[in-house]
Amino acid sequence: MELPPHDGDKLSVVDMHTGGEPLRIILSGYPDVKGDSVLAKRRYVREQLDHLRRVLMFEPRGHYDMYGALIVDSEKPEADLGVLFMHNEGYSTMCGHAVIALGRFAVDYKLVKEPQSPETQVNIHCPCGLVRAYVEYSHGKTGGVRFLSVPAFAFATDVMIKVEGYGDVTVDISYGGAFYAFVDAQRFGLDVTKSKTRDLVDVATAVTSAVKSQVRLSHPVSDDLAFLYGTILTDGKDNYSTDPTANICVFAEAQVDRSPTGSGVTARVALQFHKGLIQLNQTRTFKSGATGSLFTGKAVEETTCGDFKAVVVEVAGRAFYTGVSCFVQEAEDNLTQGFLLK
Ligand SMILES: O=C(O)[C@H]1NCC[C@@H]1O
């Protein structure tokens, strides 16, 4: 397709969604990302290339809840690719919905050598560590994806915090490649599948800011991982059941995940395991309060992360392609750097 008049470089992307959550995979147009590790590259894009995140995530090319993935080289020999995640506020350390989409993408776009049936393994080096994805592959077609995440652990349970406008609230904090606070939405008189998204976002945002100011997080591997990514409101159905349990994740700058949140499912399974509510290899289904889309999750192995007892969690879901785009900019466009409407 012929490009319209433009100035400077163009940015090409493939768009996908996983359970309704967008993933904009950057194909070309980024300058070289410097740094001798994926975590160092994450710091580099945050400091040197953030204007490109704004161009691709913000309006007029994206929107408030857009999500992106930039493929980078990994320093790990076993990795097929490295990836940096981006959203409306910055750069995440883990993203399960993106791993599910990237698994398919890596096979379809030949980032792995010989695809195998019935599953092709794709090792994706995320900022939190190496995540192993297994992509269904049959007769040349990719399908569902399951992944084994980095060690996940309950960081603290029954933590009392003071939430502005809501008083004392008890939350659990768990890590699934990123830290989340978990709280039952009923504590606020809300239902994660029925309440207005705006009401859920307001509560979750208040919880996030309270935890950020009142709880000091730490991670055994790197200080870069020690921050609260968001709050997940749940339906409280943490006891094992074959019925789905619903949650909604509000992360970054009040951004709403349309999917059940892969890293959130990882953290929630670790929490349930820690509390003795789920056993190894018991599969639970997790439903997005936003769209009703489903992931499954189970703890498959006990391990450790520093001094924390941890589990390896497997999450499974499906991603779909929605299109490809080539974005351009014009020098005279004073909104070209992007803006957000709240
Ligand atoms: O699935 C996930 O883990 C992600 N989705 C958006 C927020 C999280 O990074």
Describe this structure in words.
With 342 residues, the protein is of the alpha+beta class. It folds into two domains: 152 residues, Diaminopimelate Epimerase, Chain A, domain 1 (Roll), CATH 3.10.310; 166 residues, Diaminopimelate Epimerase, Chain A, domain 1, CATH 3.10.310.10. It has five helices and 17 strands. The chain has a 17-stranded mixed β-sheet that branches. α3 crosses α5. The model has no long low-confidence stretch (mean pLDDT 98). 3-hydroxyproline binds next to α3, β12 and α5.
Present as ligands are: 3-hydroxyproline
Task: Output the CATH homologous superfamily of the largest domain.
Answer: Diaminopimelate Epimerase, Chain A, domain 1
Q: What portion of the residues fall into strands of 2 or more residues? A: 35-45%
List the domain count as a whole number: 2
Shape: globular
CATH A-level architecture of the largest domain: Roll
CATH class of the largest domain: Alpha Beta
Given helix and strand content, the structural type is: alpha+beta
Rg value:
19 Å
Defining key terms:
globular, Diaminopimelate Epimerase, Chain A, domain 1, binds 3-hydroxyproline, 342 residues, alpha+beta, 5 helices, 38% strand
